[in-house]
């Protein structure tokens, strides 16, 4: 199986950048990281050259060496804690719609077509390639209600070597599930969700690369019985859960109408055993104080999706307040409510959203570059249950990494407009911290020249010389 | 002189997209545009093939033909109504600063180094290449206080064939002009501004490509005498004027302190004859009703710079209100307060900013894709005095255009992650309007494969086969 094929013991040499805490970025300009045949980091050295590495680690003299050239650095792979793979072809199509009208206009018609594997296959193939090309090494995917297409998405992730949580979407209610795209019965919904969980366990029993995730679309699309049954299903399989919460004011009103006995949107999930330490709640924009506290008490996690929240005019999630109270937060691209498969773009959007909140609430709520990068890596790792395994460069963690190459400005300035190095202009005088900032604010997939998951090279561009 | 070299009479064949009004985008899928040796559009035909063009315009049978291939369309060149060329190397560097601290930390030190032409040359060369590569055919540039470097920027624009307004920055006051970077005296300031105006007139007497622009940095950097003298200078040369207004609350307070007799920030400029029909006011975020009316009465124009306003947490300009009262508005990248030289990115940012305003003020204030594109082309043309000349495709207008190539998704979906077509995924079923939306929300410079100004090809990538 490709995903578990052994990889050559490798020493990665050059500049390493990663987050060591929410506010601190560590930059090691002359670093060396030894990654073994299982993709596990065996040593991390700072301020060394190869001779010193070999002296200190004599059993690594025969190891492969991958050394950075030019203005490059290694950065942990990005973690996308919320996205919808079947909505990929609708990227950029939302017009002036908001959540509920957007679902009916764009999303449900597209998702319903995934009854055909022929339709699903190129879209899932392309989307996994897209997210990998942006440095996303772990991704929490919503699929559709269809078991075969959901299983295909898991197959593709496993084959490409991208860590993934793959969820068959469950939606059985008449309120926000259209006639042409709805689980036929509660029984069939549960059977289908279970079938997809079983399939994903069968292809990756340890869940090293792909894992199933129980996926009630959101409360308005599921009956209370269905939500409860999914809570039980997740419990019996010790599985992750993902759903949406408190994205849009109209949606919140709808939940009140549909679940009149529940005190809040959060209570609906809490009462159906869907709020666990393995639950990923996307959006979480308009939560009241009690809801926030319930989520914290249950240990559920939040996926912040600012690009989507802006594009659909959903609102600005109060991330600083959540961080201050100790909630666990990662970033999600939420394609195609979000308009980009890139977590780097999502970092920028998280920063912009925090600035919009700052305009009325003071500078303290602004997210820094470092904080956004933390949410994109360490924060995301906590959200998807991979804390201590990915998201940073430490002994015992696995080598999920991207090689970022910034290139440099041509001698005398580019005269013809052919910017072979990509979108970032590095002049030579910039500190490493400046370079990281330039990457965050003007970089894109052209700067992501190679990507590894568990030590396996899963993406590279022509610029990568491994 | 390169800029006025004649170009071959050419028929451009394929899909044309342009704005015909603030809310209407016209898409002609089988169009033909005839551009003569002077770069002027002589005919615009819809629903035709080449044979029909030759039949109707028999004197164009020998003309060169540039035909679109694949998922491509012609779009008017973008107009950047406000940017700072010397700040290009600081792109992405702002941290958590706001306007006044950002000026002192990043901007003034960099700009002051442009006393050296050796420093200025590669930066200006590179930046003009960057803006052209993003499809910017006209740009209103701030330079620095230095005459030789300012003139060099004008030389580069003329040589590359990019329409430009180039302004020597004037700043003589002790308040917001540091000791190391300030016009020495009022007299030297005026003499230097005049010297640069005269130089720019000498290299392009008709102002077909480059024109000078009187550029008081902003009220806090100039004495009242200086502002008045610059108002007179602009009047005597019938010149354009550019400056900043009402960007940041601290700045507005500072203007109140420095100009206690003036009723408002706008009044400071009005009282010094700087508010004219040829004045470009950047930002204009926090104007009160009377200021808005004064600006309208004087016919002054507004450059909306949302990327910068978000990055520096300046605020969200009320663009819908300005449009409703009939103010003239274009978009500005405001590098390096803004983090991108791309007007396409600025379109997105204008849309996001309008959504943040919508969150508190209702959906009516949202800008549509069409409206953002209008501001980027026709709106910008009005701001820089080129209405009726550029910004759309009409007989008598000049051929300032970009060829946008979207490419298409590989058969079966991209399997290796090598996205040769660039960032936009076109599947084949999309309407032209969908394709334009995909370009606006996920496109970048990779999609801009050729750029013309007055019929002259001023930028191309390897993908262009002209």
TrEMBL record, chains A, B:
Reaction catalyzed: guanine + H2O + H(+) = xanthine + NH4(+)
InterPro entries reported in the protein's UniProt record: Amidohydro-rel, Guanine_deaminase, Metal-dep_hydrolase_composite, Metal_Hydrolase, Metallo-dep_hydrolases
GO cellular component: cytosol
Leader sequence residues: none
Annotated pathway: Purine metabolism; guanine degradation; xanthine from guanine: step 1/1
Gene Ontology molecular function terms on file: guanine deaminase activity; zinc ion binding
The UniProt record lists the keyword Hydrolase: yes
Binding note for cofactor: Binds 1 zinc ion per subunit.
Entry's EC annotation: 3.5.4.3
Gene3D superfamilies referenced in this protein's UniProt entry, alphabetically: Metal-dependent hydrolases (3.20.20.140), Urease, subunit C, domain 1 (2.30.40.10)
Residue ranges of domain Amidohydrolase-related in the record: 75-458
Cofactor(s) demanded: Zn(2+)
Protein's UniProt name: Guanine deaminase
């Amino acid at each position: 199986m490709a995903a578990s094929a052994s990889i050559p013991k490798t020493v990665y040499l050059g500049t390493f950048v990663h987050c060591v805490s929410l506010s601190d970025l560590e930059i090691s300009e002359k670093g060396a990281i030894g990654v073994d045949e299982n993709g596990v980091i065996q040593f991390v050295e700072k301020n060394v050259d190869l001779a010193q590495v070999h002296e200190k680690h004599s059993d690594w003299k025969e190891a492969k060496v991958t050394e950075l050239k030019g203005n490059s650095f290694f950065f942990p792979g990005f973690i996308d804690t919320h996205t919808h793979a079947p909505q990929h072809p609708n990227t950029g199509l939302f017009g002036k719609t908001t959540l509920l009208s957007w679902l009916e206009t764009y999303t449900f018609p597209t998702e319903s077509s995934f009854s055909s594997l022929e339709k699903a296959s190129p879209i899932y193939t392309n989307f996994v390639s897209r997210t990998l090309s942006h440095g996303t090494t772990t991704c929490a995917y919503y699929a559709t209600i269809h078991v075969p297409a959901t299983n295909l998405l898991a197959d593709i992730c496993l084959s490409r070597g991208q860590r993934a949580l793959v969820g068959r979407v469950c939606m059985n209610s008449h309120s926000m599930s259209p006639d042409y795209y709805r689980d036929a019965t509660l029984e069939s919904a549960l059977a289908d969700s279970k079938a997809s969980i079983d399939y994903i366990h069968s292809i990756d029993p340890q869940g090293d690369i792909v894992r199933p995730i129980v996926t009630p679309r959101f409360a308005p699309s599921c009956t209370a019985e269905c939500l409860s049954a999914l809570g039980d299903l997740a419990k019996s399989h010790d599985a992750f859960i993902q759903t949406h919460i408190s994205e849009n004011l109209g949606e919140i009103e709808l939940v009140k109408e549909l679940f009149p006995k529940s005190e809040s949107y959060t209570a609906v999930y809490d009462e159906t055993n869907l709020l666990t330490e393995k639950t990923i709640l996307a959006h979480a924009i308009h939560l009241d104080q009690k809801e926030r506290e319930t989520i914290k008490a249950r240990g559920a996690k939040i996926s912040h999706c600012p690009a989507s929240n802006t594009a659909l005019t959903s609102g600005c999630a109060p991330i600083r307040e959540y961080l201050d109270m100790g909630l666990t937060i990662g970033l999600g691209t939420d394609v195609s409510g979000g308009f980009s498969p890139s977590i780097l773009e999502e970092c920028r959007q998280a920063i912009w959203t925090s600035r919009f909140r700052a305009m009325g609430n003071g500078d303290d709520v602004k997210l820094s570059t470092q904080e956004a990068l933390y949410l994109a890596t360490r924060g995301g790792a906590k959200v998807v249950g991979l804390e201590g395994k990915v998201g940073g460069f430490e002994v015992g963690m696995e080598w999920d990494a991207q090689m970022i190459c910034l290139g440099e400005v041509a001698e005398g300035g580019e005269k013809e407009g052919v910017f072979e190095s990509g979108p970032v202009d590095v002049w030579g005088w910039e500190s490493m911290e400046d370079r990281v900032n330039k990457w965050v604010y003007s970089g894109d997939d052209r700067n992501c020249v190679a990507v590894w998951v568990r030590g396996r090279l899963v993406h590279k561009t022509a610029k990568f010389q491994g």
